[in-house]
Design a protein that fits this description.
The complex is a heterodimer. Chain A is of the alpha+beta class. Chain A folds into 3 domains: 252 residues, 3-Layer(aba) Sandwich (Rossmann fold); 103 residues, OB fold (Dihydrolipoamide Acetyltransferase, E2P) (Beta Barrel); 107 residues, Nucleic acid-binding proteins (OB fold (Dihydrolipoamide Acetyltransferase, E2P), Beta Barrel), CATH 2.40.50.140. In chain A, 20% of the residues lie in helices and 39% in strands. Chain A contains 10 helices and 32 strands. In chain A, the strands form 7 sheets. In chain A, strands 6-9-10-3-11-12 form a 6-stranded mixed sheet, sandwiched between helices. In chain A, a hairpin with a 4-residue loop joins β28 and β29. In chain A, α3 crosses α5 and α3 runs parallel beside α6. By secondary structure, chain B is mainly alpha-helical. Chain B has one domain: MetI-like fold. A two-stranded antiparallel sheet of chain B has the order 1-2. In chain B, β1 and β2 form a beta hairpin. In chain B, α6 crosses α8, α8 packs antiparallel against α11 and α10 packs antiparallel against α11. The longest helix of chain B has 34 residues. The chains are: A alpha+beta, B mainly alpha. The interface between A and B is medium-sized, with 27 and 23 residues.
């Protein structure tokens, strides 16, 4: 038994190397590198359209990466068709065959399988001189019955698919996959169609099956709670890029950037400055923190979980920020309160009751402040001058007054501050149009990301909230565009 | 009350059905079971003892089955190519295939006959068979096209995922899932072919060699009262045969696929 555990920790079963997938000029998976260990329960977690399902489909073989390599048990399987890969999929909406009953749905893969005979078998009359064979009827029956028992549907073999509830169909789909004893079981948002109670139940069931079978599970979901409760390892993905890989605890406690912090659980994300080691300033207040290694006055984001903020009487000695309770909602076992302090609206979870409108004090422990580098501090674009006073950004020409003599075609670096870009409701009203891909509240403003033409990203700070997937216009005043000379990269 | 109010909307349909389906059917029974002397089984006895009638009935059945099967064999690959491959102009091509249905049957048939003369096919079995296939191919394609187009691609992926080679994906998944379309198409062309009148008289050579049921009925009904009685008996037999085949095929179709069928 010990040996097995040891093996588990060493062996890589799936490896993704520099995986890129481009659909009609849109990059959905961008240079993903990942190793998945044998026997683990790994979850790809991210918002819809982040590329997690595409990654899973590439491992199953339904999609071929634009570039990069996929290894399964050390073997390059990048261009091997799905029916030759030793992985099985539980599909989002089950995809059970309506023309077959439960038994035959599960037996589908077994009936197709051809495998080598063992030497012992070749010694028998039945398989004399036969190199390969199929499962016999009784073998298939045994395996299907075992699989049915595993998913708690023992007496359902003869039933029609249509006569089953969603949860039962889900179980059949799982049985149909695991009966083939795949090296890796791929699950594509399998619980998405179930109601909350059923989903909770199936989460436990899946975890139990994972423990019993010892097969590597690769699970795709957008539900962070599901990921946190079931996984050994979570891979957080956004915009086709892996944001963080870690255990649920690591992901929750030490999010590596503002996206992860915002996506996993609720959090307060505040923009601030790292004054020096262990000293951070935000909301016009200086706090002690437990982080170091930043440059002096480096702009950073601070993440504080709602349950890590203490609410105190305003006169308490420990108070660091004075605030007012804006709202209070009872959530069953705790209160969720919005508390306004120095123009920032904190979300706080507490067991104590404070009235709306009451003045309170807030305190945060140094170890509960998670400091993260800002991804960027300004929008920068490597582009070219289109004329003496023209520069191109995202396919649009801007007339500017450069501080140096610009030549047509010259490589330049254009930059715009986050605050100097305006978002407009009507995509046609702006000079550029694009889609909102993320919006994060950072206290006094929302940080909105908009992807526009030519794969150009605009990070914008705006006082209003924008919905993900909104098609919006962007307006930049030419006087806000700064241009510098730049050296041309050889790669271009 | 509400139910009564809405029942009124069904009235035109019910009146139409009474006039166009129930009443003619009653007439058929009336003629089949009566003569000048009142109620009789005489027409049935006549028809059952008429060898020529049985020969023509049998011939109509096997020609209809043969033509319908050929239609299916040609239509299936066309519908498959249009729906299952990433074919872009599928609606245009489908339109081209169904376009002949929009032209006049007589014009189409004269054109076809001229074509036959050009390639030296004389009226008779082959001319009849080809004309039947040409005429009924468009309606064979449509139901198969619809059913194939509605197959969830996830089922094909699931099949592949479980180890099916492209050929097995077809035989184990696509074909069974498209069974309702195949059966619908078969019924849709089989029943009109069995009782076809125009095509068999136009392409069958005019003699009795390739005479089909439609022609026989025509001859019977023109031959006065006795003929009308016998013709009605033949029509009833045909009705029962087609009805039975639809029932049997439907049962078959239900085994194939519980949902999504046309029938």
């Amino acid at each position: 038994m010990k040996e097995m555990v040891k093996k588990k920790n060493l062996e890589t079963i799936v490896e993704l190397k520099n995986i890129v997938k481009v659909y009609e000029k849109e990059t959905v998976v961008d240079d993903v590198n990942l190793k998945i260990k044998k026997g683990e329960f790994v979850t790809f977690l991210g918002p819809s359209g982040c590329g997690k399902t595409t990654l899973l489909r590439m491992i199953a073989g339904f999609e071929t990466p634009t570039s990069g390599t996929i290894y399964l048990e050390g073997k390059n399987v990048t261009s091997i068709p799905p029916h030759k890969r030793n992985v099985n999929t539980v599909f989002q909406k089950y995809a059970l065959f309506p023309h077959l009953d439960v038994f035959n749905n599960i037996a589908f893969g077994l009936k197709l399988k051809v495998f080598e005979t063992t030497e012992q078998e070749r010694a028998t009359k039945q398989y004399k001189n036969k190199k390969t064979r199929r499962f016999t009827k009784s073998e298939i029956k045994k395996k299907v019955d075992d699989a049915l028992a595993l998913v708690n549907l023992a007496e359902y073999g003869h039933r029609d698919i249509d006569s089953l509830s969603g949860g039962q169909q889900q179980r059949v789909a799982i049985a149909r996959a695991i009966v083939n004893e795949p090296r890796v079981l791929l699950l594509d948002e399998p619980l998405g169609a179930l109601d909350l109670k059923m989903r909770k139940e199936m989460q436990m069931e899946l975890k139990r099956m994972h423990n019993e079978l010892g097969i590597t599970f690769l699970y795709v979901t957008h539900d962070q709670e599901e990921a946190l409760t079931m996984s050994d390892t979570i891979v957080v993905i956004n915009d086709g890029v892996i944001q963080q890989v870690g255990t649920p605890k690591q992901i929750y406690d030490e999010p590596s950037n503002a996206f992860v912090a915002d996506f996993i659980g609720e959090s307060n994300i505040i923009s601030g400055i790292m004054l020096q080691d262990f000293k951070v300033k935000f909301l016009d207040t200086i706090f002690e923190c437990s982080d170091k290694g930043f440059t002096k006055n480096q702009p950073i984001d601070i993440v504080i979980r709602p349950e890590d903020i203490q609410i105190l009487k305003p006169k308490d000695k420990k108070v660091q920020l004075a605030g007012t309770v804006l709202s209070s909602t009872f959530m069953g076992t705790y209160f969720e309160k919005i508390i306004k302090a120095n123009e920032y609206e904190f979300t706080v979870q507490t067991m104590d009751e404070f009235k709306v409108g009451e003045s309170v004090g807030l305190a945060i422990k140094p170890s509960d402040m998670h400091i993260m580098k800002k991804e960027a501090i300004i929008n920068e674009y490597q582009t070219y001058a289109r004329g003496e006073d023209k520069v191109e950004i995202a396919g649009t020409d801007f007339e500017i007054s450069p501080t140096f003599e610009m030549e047509k075609g010259e490589p330049v670096l254009a930059s715009v501050e986050f605050e100097n870009i305006e978002i407009l409701d009507d995509p046609d009203e702006g000079t550029i149009s694009g889609h909102v891909t993320s919006t994060i509240y950072k206290g006094t403003y929302y940080q909105v990301k908009v992807w526009a033409q030519n794969d150009t990203l605009f990070i914008i700070h705006t006082p209003t909230e924008w919905d993900i997937d909104d098609h919006v216009g962007i307006r930049i005043k030419p006087e806000h565009i700064r241009v510098e000379k730049r050296e041309e990269n050889d790669e271009e | 009350m509400v139910r009564k109010k809405y029942a009124l909307f069904a009235a035109p349909f019910i009146i139409f059905m009474l006039m166009m389906v129930v009443f003619p059917l009653c007439l058929l029974f009336w003629y089949a079971f009566t003569s000048d002397d009142g109620f009789t089984f005489q027409h049935f006895r006549d028809v059952f003892n008429d060898n020529i009638a049985w020969t023509i009935l049998g011939r109509s059945l096997w020609i209809a089955i043969l033509a319908a099967v050929i239609c299916l064999l040609i239509a299936y690959p066309i519908a498959y190519g249009l729906t299952m491959t990433g074919f872009k102009r599928r609606t245009t091509i489908l339109l081209l295939f169904t376009l002949p249905m929009w032209t006049n049957l007589l014009l189409r048939s004269i054109a076809l006959r001229n074509l036959f003369i050009l390639v030296d096919i004389t009226p008779g079995f082959w001319a009849l068979l080809i004309s039947l296939v040409v005429n009924f191919l468009p309606i064979t394609i449509l139901p198969i096209y619809i059913v194939l187009g509605n197959i969830d691609k996830k089922h094909l992926e699931a099949s592949q995922d479980l180890g099916a080679t492209p050929r097995k994906v077809f035989t184990k998944t696509v074909l069974p899932l498209s069974m309702p379309g195949i059966i619908a198409a078969f019924i849709l062309v089989f029943s009109p072919i069995v009782s076809t009148y125009f095509l068999s008289s136009f392409f069958g050579g005019g003699g009795s060699d390739w005479r089909m049921l439609g022609e026989l009925l025509n001859i019977q009904y023109r031959a006065g009262d006795i003929g009308v009685g016998r013709g009605s008996v033949l029509s009833l037999i045909l009705l029962v045969l087609v009805g039975l085949s639809v029932l049997i095929l439907n049962r078959f179709s239900k085994v194939g696929n519980k949902r999504g069928g046309l029938w």
